[in-house]
Design a protein that fits this description.
Helix content: 25-40%
Distance between the termini: 19 Å
Number of helices: 4
Strand content: 25-35%
Number of domains: 1
Low-confidence stretches: none
Order of helices and strands: EEHEEHHEEHE
Number of strands: 7
Largest sheet: 4 strands, antiparallel
Mean pLDDT: 92
Structural class: alpha+beta
Amino acid sequence: MKFSGILKVKPDPAIIAELERRQKSLPEEAILLEAKHLHVTLIHQDFLKPYVKQLKTMDFSDAPPIILDTGYIVKTETSDNNQKKSWAVNLANQSEMRDYVTGLMKQVGAEVINPEPERIFHISIANLTGNPHDSVK
């Protein structure tokens, strides 16, 4: 687990290998994300700004493991005539990740303990550019 503005979990080598295997089955238009960019965003930076000092000193060794769901999903988003498309693998342990986020937000004293109730925890594995910032959130 790493705090770098966002709070994210980096996959271990076995998960990376499985994600790379799944990347091989994507369509031609999918530009693969490099292994160094593969991660699960737990909490977006917008919600963490008031707690940066606390988060920088916290130990995240109790983070739940990444458990991949089967296959992959395709996500699209259109805004201002800009079309985004990305391929991702959802996590099978959504509720465990959500509980972890809730616990962290309580620990830092946040008023909103579930800042992104609509978040589906996933790992983006490809998009239309290969730039990780161009993936659908």
